[in-house]
Amino acid sequence: MYDYLKGILSQVTANYIVVEVAGIGYRINVANPYSFSEQLHQELQVYLYHLVREDAQLLYGFHTEAEKAVFLNLISVSGIGPTSALAIIAVDDNEGLVRAIDNNDVTYLTKFPKIGKKTAQQMVLDLAGKFTDSKEIAVKKTQISIKENTALEEAMEAMLALGYKAAELRKIKKFFEGTTDTAENYIKSSLKMLMK
After folding, report:
1. pTM, rounded to two decimals
2. How far is 78 from 121, CA to CA, in rounded Å?
3. Half-sphere exposure of 66 (CA within 13 A, CB side)
4. What are the tens digits of pLDDT across the range 156-181?
């Protein structure tokens, strides 16, 4: 089982990043790939979860051990797979997540993609009281200095990959037309709008 990788970030896409270690490129699925963009072509350390299935071996990556801990708690819930867990982490509101779980706020939890009422109730049942350490819910926030004209398109592509519906995203996209920002910030703002 892998704990972390340390290598050169060679690629950032809407769905994953690629970290090169000793000439081998590792494809790592992450919650918000563009949050790693600042370190493109530089050395970085990514905390890992290694999933082995009959048809595939997949790597999931995290900025911090705390972020990984949140992910592991989420996938321990029946009905939540790695993709849904990443979508929840991508909202970047883990304090709100913990508050919703501890307060039995099923309505809030069902706003996450692919989380129905039954799964939300299971989250409350399985995870209430498990996020007692505030350090565990702290997620590293990375600022990106590079601005691109395609940032909004990249953000929408990443949101689709997280499981949000195209119809929802078209409304969000119209709201941001004429603005300039990073893909990471567009994703964060979009997720916050969708959670309201």
Report:
1. 0.69
2. 10
3. 14
4. 888 888 888 777 887 788 777 777 78
